[in-house]
């Protein structure tokens, strides 16, 4: 039995499926990842600060203009659309599966693809709030307020994304871990599993269908039941060829 056939059977035999996704899932939508050779963190910037420093909480407060210059240029992809991977995980619901998405991505593409249950542990660019009065602003709202978006009350607007030096939302942590603990099947896709604490969520899985779909090897490969090192678009095409749907 091939790995694709094993994956197909595992999906068919599962009812509660959790998809844990990372930046590699969205590269086919034109969004660069963070840690690869061509990723955001390895770009040479015309700045005395590194990418990690710029997307920190303290930098945001001290240098909001420089933060937003980087954020709007490197982290916001307004025209990006869900790719075949996002759509595939949404379509698992057509098989009658109870699918929960736990994602490290902030691009909002799982929700745009139509997935019903999405936990965005690092937040999303689609939501923004005034730090003073907590008024909500959409992505379009803050894009119209460049270079630095300020609220009508005079407070600065902050993207609802988790920056360095900030903690993950406790409710999201609980929801993600609870979903993983109760899952029949956990599909890890497009992540090297090196970003903590989110990467540690995988340890809460108790089943025997732990699947890793990623272009490169990860520290968890040896612990997985099925490992496929390939682009998710190729995996999706093979599953369709295997007549999963």
Annotation keywords:
about 240 residues; about 30% helix; single chain; 2 domains; SIR2/SIRT2 'Small Domain'
What does this structure look like?
- With 245 residues, the chain is α/β, with parallel strands linked by helices.
- The chain has two domains: 141 residues, Rossmann fold, CATH 3.40.50.1220; 69 residues, SIR2/SIRT2 'Small Domain' (2-Layer Sandwich), CATH 3.30.1600.
- It has nine helices and nine strands.
- The longest helix is centred in the C-terminal third of the chain and has 13 residues.
- The radius of gyration is 19 Å and the shape is elongated.
**CATH first level of the largest domain:** Alpha Beta
Q: Please identify, by name, the CATH architecture of the largest domain.
A: 3-Layer(aba) Sandwich
Tell how many strands the DSSP assignment holds. Answer: 9
Indicate the CATH topology of the largest domain: Rossmann fold
What's a quick, concise take on this entry?
With 245 residues, this protein is an alpha/beta fold. Helix content is 30%, strand content 17%.
Describe the protein's topology:
Layout (H helix, E strand, L loop, with lengths): L2 H10 L3 E6 L29 H4 L2 H6 L1 H12 L8 H8 L6 E6 L5 H5 L4 E3 L2 E8 L5 E2 L1 H5 L13 E5 L8 H13 L2 E5 L20 E4 L12 E3 L3 H10 L4
Parallel strand pairs: 1-2, 1-7, 2-3, 7-8, 8-9
Antiparallel strand pairs: 4-5, 4-6
